[in-house]
Flagellar rod assembly protein FlgJ/peptidase M23 (Desulfofervidus auxilii), 104 residues
Amino acid sequence: MQNWKLYNSIMAPSSIQYQGARSKSQEKLRKVCAEFESLFIHYMLKTMRNSSLKSPLLHSKYEDIYNSLIDQQISLHISKAGGIGIGEILYNQLKVLDAHDDKK
């Protein structure tokens, strides 16, 4: 039985092996797109927070650090929960470009 598995792995058509490598490439692309969406959401939250009025009596540099950490965690959770759609749109666009480059 072991010889049969070895034979199948050696004699597998290159298209099957290519599809395996391609799916790993697409998984990496999806992960990078999700990370980009998380960064985009973090920047959006940071900009929204900076545009609000702050009381000079209660504001401190520690509040800025805390708010930055909270914004980062919120952006990660939003991105993991499906995000706002930017990651999926970016993935679809880059997937098409990747498929186009493979045909050349």
Observations:
- The chain has one domain: 27-103.
- The CA atoms of residues 72 and 89 lie 22 Å apart.
